[in-house]
Structures are given as structure tokens and as C-alpha cells.
Amino acid sequence: MSHHDHDHERTVKPMVEEITDFEVLEIALRELCIEKGLFTAAEHRRLTEYAEQIDATPASRLVARAWLNPEYKALVLSDPIAACKEIGVDWLEPTGFGTPSDFVAFKVLEDTPTVHHVIVCALCSCYPRPILGNSPEWYRTPNYRRRLVRWPRQVLSEFGLELPENVGVRVEDSNQKHRYMVMPMRPAGTEGWTEDQLAEIITRDCLIGVALPKPGVTSNVITATRPAIRAVTSPGV
């Protein structure tokens, strides 16, 4: 078919006016993988739909159960993949050979009275999606990624988290081979609570490390943040 014979009116138009270089690369790589038989279009759709429906609920239950059960907590810290299976999360689903994170190693970081953990991916947006779902938009921004490793206390304060000076902040940098999740300390005032009650106050932000669980705070509302003290801007801005 020549250029003049092409039916332009029947050509499928993109859903947006512009697409980024990364989107073009993803489309090209996906189509090449399908053409080479690495996976089918149906398998790709299944994986995408699987990834989109994951949220942080299983991770909240994992922490709540660990707070109540010392034996389970030991499993979480020693073999988190096995601990995930006990709450219904199999990192090899749905493909049997990989996950939305394509993990190699997963570790749960336990907070203590003197150490507070927070996770970041300084280079891109590596995140434990099989257990936490898709990462929030702010997690992928340059301001969070670049600044957290340099000024962690200032960044946390912008999320409203002010830590005492005697509490050290340990930043764990996720990467292609490692994924992390935070196990915050159980807050006071939750004595006698059930697993369901505890799970409700363990929000996604607590599991990333930019918030602490508090009785009464039971949803991932938009955090009231302060403007960045040392904002990262593009060259020339």
C-alpha cells in the first residue's frame, strides 16, 4: 500500500497528544518481546491488570500480625517472601517467573526506639509493588529521590514527621536488585487491639517511612506538606 492509498481516517489515534521518549521505548520493547515470543499480548495484559489492582492492604496486615505474633515477626525479618505468602501475597504471581517489581531480594526494615527507616530509589522508582502496590507520584519525583539521601530530616519534616534528635534516620536506597519495606513501631494506645484494628492505622506512608502509625489515622489521605527548603529545579530555571 502506497502513502496515497493509506486510509488516514481509519488510523487509530493516540489517546494523548504527546508521548514521552520512555513511553515510545516501552512500546517498542513490548512489541519486540511479543514478536520474539518472550510473552504474549494476553500475558502482558494480565500482568498489567494484576499490578494495577494491588494496594498496601496486605503489607499493613503483615506488620499488624508481626506486632501481635513474635514467631511471625521473626519470619518476616528472616524470610519476608515466605511471610508474604502467609498473608496471600506470592511474589511469583501471576507469571510464575517474575513480578511487577521483578525482585531479587526483599527486606523488611524494623524501626527501633533509636533508628527510623525510610525508603527511596535515588535513580528511578524501584518499589516493592507486589506488597505495596504502585508507588505514589511523589515517590518518583526528583525532589524526593535526590533530596532524601542528602537531607532526610528536612524531607521528613515536610511530610509532617518530626523525629527526636536521639532517633537516627537510616535511608535505604532501593535498586534493580533490592526492594525494601518499613516495619514501624507499634504506637502507644493500641494495647488490646485486634489485627484488623492495627492494620487500619498502618498506612502506605508508614510502610515507606514518611509517616508513623497513629490511632485514628486510618487512610492514605493527601499529606499536608510544607514547601521544600532545598528544592531541586531543572537547569536554567
Could you walk me through the main structural features you see in this protein, from its secondary elements to its overall organization?
By secondary structure, the protein is an alpha/beta fold. The strands form 2 sheets. Strands 1-4 form a two-stranded parallel sheet. The longest helix has 16 residues, at 21-36. Helices cover 36% and strands 10% of the residues.
Q: Quaternary status of these chains?
A: single chain
Q: What is the structural class?
A: alpha/beta
Number of strands: 4
Give the amount of beta strand, in percent.
5-15%
pLDDT < 50 runs, ≥5 residues: 10-15
Question: How are the SSEs ordered, and which strands pair?
Answer:
Elements: H1 21-36, H2 41-52, H3 57-68, H4 70-78, H5 80-85, E1 105-110, E2 115-120, H6 129-132, H7 142-148, H8 152-158, E3 168-173, E4 178-183, H9 195-201, H10 204-208
Parallel strand pairs: 1-4, 2-3
Helix pairs in contact: 3-4, 3-9
Give a brief outline of the structure.
This protein is of the alpha/beta class. It has helices at 21-36, 41-52, 57-68, 70-78, 80-85, 129-132, 142-148, 152-158, 195-201, 204-208; strands spanning 105-110, 115-120, 168-173, 178-183.
